[in-house]
């Protein structure tokens, strides 16, 4: 029971700090480090949920999880089947398999939906917009103030005529730098796992919070590519409207927070905070990774008459 509880805590503890992390203003000054921490928390939660079932399933084989897991795998490999496991252990295995399949299925579904939307957007832009090759921009004949990129291979940076007419040259330049940063950084791929997580566990506040927080952080990372923050802040206020489905817009998420951040960008970010956050991300991720990797590093197993005998690897 103790190993199972420890594995459950590995999954739940990072999730418990999600709401506080989403509200933390230090993330504004260190968006890349904060993004890495969110990625570590989400991955740790998923691996922890899967590992908790595995720990419970192999507990009858040995109280030490690496020993029990290695015994379980070798039993399967040597044709001993699921010997020694009861119905509770079967339920635990089903839990782990179910969580894994559920996450993979929603990730694939989110990828297919995103790809379909982007293809549709590229087609609409190619049909309706005028391409300005000198600026590599597509201009939509719309009075709405729009600026967004359609990410992916052969992506598009799109401006509306309304945005061109209402923004100054400096503001337009800042907006274009922002959108091209999205395209170069493939921020759509960074956001995709969090979109899938929010769909897979829509009832879980952590999943929704993570998706929203990561979207804002990606916008802040793109904001940092604007040479002068003041014109971009003015453009954000003027264009506070979401991008079409499948696109990443300049005013998509966290507009108020981003404007405040841009106006206060003269405050120097403290380098050691990023180091501390990256270290915390590695620490958060190390727990479930260590649990999964340990069986393949420290045990040497061999078949016996009925079961398998596993002993600590002597290194010889």
Major β-sheet annotation: 5 strands, mixed
Across the major sheet, the strand order is 1-2-4-3-5
Task: Supply the helix-strand structural class.
Answer: alpha+beta
| Low-pLDDT residue spans | 301-312
Number of helices: 14
Question: How would you summarize the topology of this molecule?
Answer:
Layout: H1 2-16, H2 18-23, H3 26-29, H4 31-58, H5 65-77, H6 87-128, E1 130-132, E2 137-140, E3 147-150, E4 156-160, H7 161-166, H8 169-185, H9 187-200, H10 205-223, H11 229-238, E5 248-249, H12 255-263, H13 271-293, H14 295-298, E6 299-303, E7 308-312
Parallel strand pairs: 2-4
Antiparallel strand pairs: 1-2, 3-4, 3-5, 6-7
Helix pairs in contact: 1-4, 1-13, 4-6, 4-10, 4-13, 6-9, 8-10, 8-11, 9-10, 10-12, 11-12
Pfam families: Peptidase_M48 (PF01435)
Transmembrane segments: 34-59, 94-115, 270-298
InterPro entries: Beta-lactam_resp_regulator, Peptidase_M48
């Amino acid at each position: 029971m103790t190993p199972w509880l420890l594995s459950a805590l590995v999954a739940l503890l990072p999730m418990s700090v999600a709401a506080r992390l989403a509200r933390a203003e230090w993330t504004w000054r260190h968006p890349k480090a904060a993004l890495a921490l969110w990625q570590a928390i989400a991955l740790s939660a998923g691996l922890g949920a899967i590992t908790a079932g595995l720990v419970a399933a192999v507990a009858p084989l040995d109280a030490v999880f690496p020993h029990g897991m290695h015994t379980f795998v070798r039993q399967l490999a040597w044709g001993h089947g699921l010997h020694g496991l009861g119905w509770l252990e079967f339920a635990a295995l089903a839990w782990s398999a179910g969580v894994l399949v559920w996450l993979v299925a929603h990730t694939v579904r989110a990828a297919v939906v995103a790809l379909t939307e982007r293809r549709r957007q590229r087609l609409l832009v190619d049909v309706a917009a005028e391409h300005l090759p000198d600026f590599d921009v597509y201009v939509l004949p719309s009075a709405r103030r729009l600026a967004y990129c359609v990410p992916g291979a052969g992506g598009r940076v799109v401006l509306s005529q309304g945005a061109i007419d209402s923004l100054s040259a400096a503001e337009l330049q800042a907006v274009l730098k922002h959108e091209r940063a999205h395209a170069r950084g493939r921020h759509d791929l960074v956001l995709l796992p969090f979109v899938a997580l929010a769909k897979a566990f829509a009832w879980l506040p952590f999943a929704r919070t993570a998706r929203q927080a990561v979207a804002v952080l990606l916008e802040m990372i793109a904001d940092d590519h604007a040479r002068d923050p003041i014109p971009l802040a003015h453009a954000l206020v003027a264009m506070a409207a979401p991008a079409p489905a499948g696109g990443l817009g300049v005013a998509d998420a966290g507009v108020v927070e981003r404007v405040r951040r841009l106006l206060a960008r003269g405050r120097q970010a403290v380098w050691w905070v990023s180091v501390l956050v990256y270290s915390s991300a590695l620490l958060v991720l190390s727990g479930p990774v260590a649990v999964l990797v340990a069986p393949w590093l420290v045990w040497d197993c061999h078949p016996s008459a009925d079961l398998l005998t596993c002993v600590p690897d002597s290194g010889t």
